[in-house]
Amino acid sequence: MKYLVLLLTGFLAFNAEAEVYKCTDSGGNKVYRSTPCVAGSNIQIDLKTGVSIDLDAEKKSDLQKIKERQEREEQAELQRQQAVQRKQQIVEAGKKNQVLIKARPHDFSAYAIPPYDVDNLLPLVKRFEGRLVDIERLRGAAAEKALATGQCNRVESSELNEKSSPESLVFLVDCSNAKTFYFNEQELGK
């Protein structure tokens, strides 16, 4: 019988562990409870270490982290959408040049204005990657301006030139009669 009582007492001792919450009301009074406190005074005390944990602050911190994570995800999604939209704009500008070439094959070589592959750009073009839509548009304009001079029989190529700077893009147009033309973006914008 003695052993049975000791055994039951041992089991009860293990189940006696409970969480304690330190609740502070609006008057500053502190009360220790076994149930969570109302909002604004929710502090839990760890019985093993004696450390008090403000559960409301933890909850606010968790909510803030969730909000920040959602904002980062939204920002990443927005950047992804902008990149897709930018690629589509570049492809559309390249298609306009190809339509121009197909409409006037006697004025343009089939490879006069090849579209740029966004994922595989030349080092020169990569420096101006942010203006790729403008570059595609201006390449076509440079080729047409060279033809308009009357000194170019047929455009063989229209490319961005090494003389380009961030302030002004320069385009080189080669013609089949060995003439070359340089146009900057200010001349082509008129």
Describe this structure in words.
The chain has five helices and seven strands, in the order αββββαααβββα. It is of the alpha+beta class. The protein folds into two domains: 2-56, no CATH class; 72-189, no CATH class. It has a four-stranded antiparallel β-sheet with strand order 2-1-3-4. The model has no long low-confidence stretch (mean pLDDT 83).
Short characterization:
With 190 residues, the protein is an alpha+beta fold. The protein is built from 5 helices and 7 strands, in the order αββββαααβββα.
Oligomer: single chain
Task: Tell me, rounded to a whole number, the average pLDDT.
Answer: 83
Number of domains: 2
Poorly predicted segments: none
Taken as a percent bin, the fraction of beta residues is: 15-25%
Query: How is the main sheet built?
Result: 4 strands, antiparallel
Termini separation comes to 107 Å
- The number of helical runs is 5
**Coarse shape:** rod-shaped
Query: Strands across the major sheet, in which order?
Result: 2-1-3-4
Radius of gyration: 36 Å
SSE string, helices as H and strands as E: HEEEEHHHEEEH
Number of strands: 7
Structural class: alpha+beta
Helix content: 40-55%
